[in-house]
Amino acid sequence: MKQIQAIIRSEKLDSVKDALVSLGINGMTVTSVHGFGKQMGHTEVYRGVKIEARLLPKVMVTTVVTDTAMPGVIEAITASAQTGDIGDGKIIVTSVLDSVRIRTGETNDATLD
Asked: What is the pLDDT of residues 33-42, one digit of tens each?
C-alpha cells in the first residue's frame, strides 16, 4: 500500500476530489495547510505598507491506495491540479506497512474498500 499526499491549490480541490472518486477512491483526508516552495510567498500592499506573506495557503489531500492503483492516482491528481504555473503543488508517496479498520479488524488492502 502507498500513502499519497498531494499539496495543491485550494481552488483545485473539487476537481482533484472528483478525479479520485471517478477512480474508485472512496476515502481521503483534506487538510488546510500553509507553506512555500519556489513561489517563496508573495508581497501585498495593505494601507500603503508592503507586507510579505511567506506562507501561502494550500490544501493537502491524503489517501492510501494499493500499489497497483498508485500510478493512476498520481496521474489523476496531476491532470486535475495542474495549471502550469509555479505553485501547483507537490505529490509525495510513502509506503504503508500496515492498516487496520478499527470497526471490523480487517487489515491491509481490505481496509481500502
From this structure: 988 777 666 6
